[in-house]
Design a protein that fits this description.
two-stranded antiparallel ribbon; alpha/beta; 11 strands; 253 residues; globular; 9-stranded mixed beta sheet; 9 helices
Length: 253
């Protein structure tokens, strides 16, 4: 029984229906398959069905998951972030670590999940976050893409929607972005959930990982591949469709 689970990890995919930027986003079809299902199927290439659950605030999304035989759980409509949604799952289902894959990553690379699971096993008590290099100036300036900077041990120093690190020259600065897969130890995510208001920087940047830094927790970064494209807008959705069509023709991946 998923609800009584007590295991090393569980993969949780948060999916909110009423996104400000893109309402109804999890159910938007990408080449005929709802986005939340595509994300789940990418993860199910690595984990068993019993190790994955979609955490949603909406019965339509739950119904959609049932249709595809994917576990789902209803969480509160009051959750401030996807991480708060994962924390609600942590209160109901016991596991050592919660691997959070965002529901808007329909071409999420299963190899990245594999790597995160391995890192999570080796760093049981650390918060982990995926990152990858940004390859073009457009993405450096794209406010929908949270950028990260880190120390020599790959500990997160800061995350921002602004281009960081800032450069005065016209050259493309070396920069990195989040890949939206995390590993949260049970104690850390419950500590995060106790903070009932968004913290100052989290609110300003609209980046939830900052709440951990602001309450004094450390976040370690894990290098991921560049095969991911979070869907924040209709334009992103069309780009993902183009990628999948290209993949079909070339039979890549």
């Amino acid at each position: 029984n998923l609800m009584k689970r007590n295991s090393d990890f569980i993969v949780v995919i948060p999916a909110r229906y009423g996104s400000k930027r893109f309402p109804g986003k999890p159910l938007k079809k990408i080449l005929g398959i709802p986005m939340i299902i595509r994300t789940s199927l990418q993860c199910l290439k690595i984990v068993k069905n019993s190790q994955l659950v979609v955490a949603t605030d909406d019965k339509k999304i739950k119904k959609c998951c049932e249709k595809y035989s994917i576990n789902s759980i209803l969480t509160s409509k009051k959750c401030k972030t996807g991480t708060d949604r994962v924390a609600e799952v942590a209160k109901k289902i016991k596991a050592r670590n919660y691997i959070n894959v965002q529901g808007d990553e329909p071409i999420f690379n299963p190899d990245d999940l594999s790597k995160m699971l391995k890192e999570s096993k080796q760093n049981k008590n650390k918060i982990l976050l995926g990152y990858t290099k940004i390859k073009n100036r457009i993405n450096c300036n794209n406010k929908n893409i949270p950028k990260v900077v880190f120390d020599k041990n790959e500990n997160l120093l800061y995350a921002s929607r602004s281009p960081i690190p800032f450069t005065n020259s016209n050259k493309l600065s070396k920069s990195w972005r989040q890949v939206l897969v995390y590993s949260f130890p049970r104690l850390e995510i419950l500590k995060f959930y106790k903070i009932k208001k968004k913290t100052f920087l989290e609110e300003k940047e609209d980046i939830e990982i900052l709440r951990f830094l602001e309450i004094g927790s450390k976040v370690k970064l894990v290098k991921m591949t560049n095969i991911s494209h979070p869907v924040d807008t209709i334009k992103d959705l069309h780009q993902v469709e183009r990628f999948l069509n290209y993949k079909k023709k070339k039979l890549i991946w």
